[in-house]
Design goal:
Number of strands: 4
Order of helices and strands: EHEEHEHH
Distance between the termini: 75 Å
Structural class: alpha+beta
Largest sheet: 4 strands, antiparallel
Helix content: 25-40%
Number of helices: 4
Shape: globular
Strand order of the largest sheet: 2-3-1-4
Strand content: 15-25%
Amino acid sequence: MENLISTTYSVVGMKEGDSATFFQKTLTDIEGVISVKIDSAKSQVEITSQEVLDIEMLQKATVNTDYYILELKPYYKTASPYNSAVDNVKQRHNASGDVDGGDDGYLNSGPVTDYTTD
């Protein structure tokens, strides 16, 4: 008997209660996919397949659906593909210091207020 691989992915755009029937059928139609289970409450999909599936191939296959599939990373707080980069910037950057000229050592330029018109 063959070993099957179950992988859980994040799904951007999915809301609790979504049926996502077209998305599920699209994933099921991919060669090598055995089953697809959607958890709309968690915005996730579990795909069981015969082999490891390439995330780019999954994204291309589902491009005409209302959803975007991403690898599930434990450090993501949301399904946003750039969330961890935003978190890193927030940790280094004190926005209130920028406005009042604080001296935290990061980007202390303040808001842009010099607007010129011709």
